[in-house]
Amino acid sequence: MIKPQDILILLKIASLIEKDWNMNDLARSLSLSQSEVSKGLDRLVFAGLIDESKRVPALNALYDILVSSARYFFPVKPGGIQRGIPTAHSAIPLNKKIRSESKYVWPSPEGTERGESIEPLYKSVPFAALEDEKLYELLALVDALRVGKAREQKLAREELKKRFDSVEF
Q1: What's the N-to-C CA distance of the chain in angstroms?
Q2: Distance between CA atoms of residues 83 and 125, nearest Å
Q3: DSSP label at residue 161
Q4: For the CA atoms of the chain, what is the radius of gyration?
Q5: Residue 101: its pLDDT value, please?
């Protein structure tokens, strides 16, 4: 059974595709234990979302899962207004294409914006996003799939496709 932290791990690996990394780095940057990362990688191998070496993510499969299922497997409803870190259409890259009065944020004391709170995919997402710009953008796009309306979802699908298609192993 794939867990939300497994998707976080896979997105992090996708953001590091051109860099060397080890399990220690992954665990630290995601605020996960090494055992959580190890178990997550094992689940991802079993599901066919990463190769046996645990280095090469199956980005086409990840894309298919995210665009068809994120909103159902990782549902979210906007909550009250809080201070937090912008996400979905309120964050880069979609905030350059969508002008909206409503903002979505992950609740966080490090946040700089006020908006409707969105529960992150996993509890360590706000911390991990602030550590890695590429990961932040991927997570914001996933949130646009989870909570966005048709236009936001369409733009998120296009952005994810463009990013995943441009990765070379």
Answers
A1: 27
A2: 15
A3: H
A4: 15
A5: 86
Q: What residue has token string 């605020």?
A: 31
pLDDT digit string, tens, across residues 21-59: 999 999 999 999 999 999 999 999 999 999 999 989 999
Query: What is the rounded distance in angstroms from the CA atom of residue 7 to the CA atom of residue 154?
Result: 20
Q: What single string gives the DSSP state of each residue in 61-129?
A: HHHHHHHHHHHHHS-----SEEEEEEEGGGSTTGGGT---S--EEEE-TT--EEEEE---SSTTHHHHH
Average pLDDT, the chain: 94
Where are the chain's structural domains?
Answer: 4-73, 81-165
Which residue type does 93 have?
Answer: P
**Has residue 99 got a pLDDT over 90?**
no
CB atoms within 10 A of CB 33: 10
Under a CB-based contact definition with an 8 Å cutoff, are residues 8 and 128 in contact?
yes
* The amino acid at 70: A
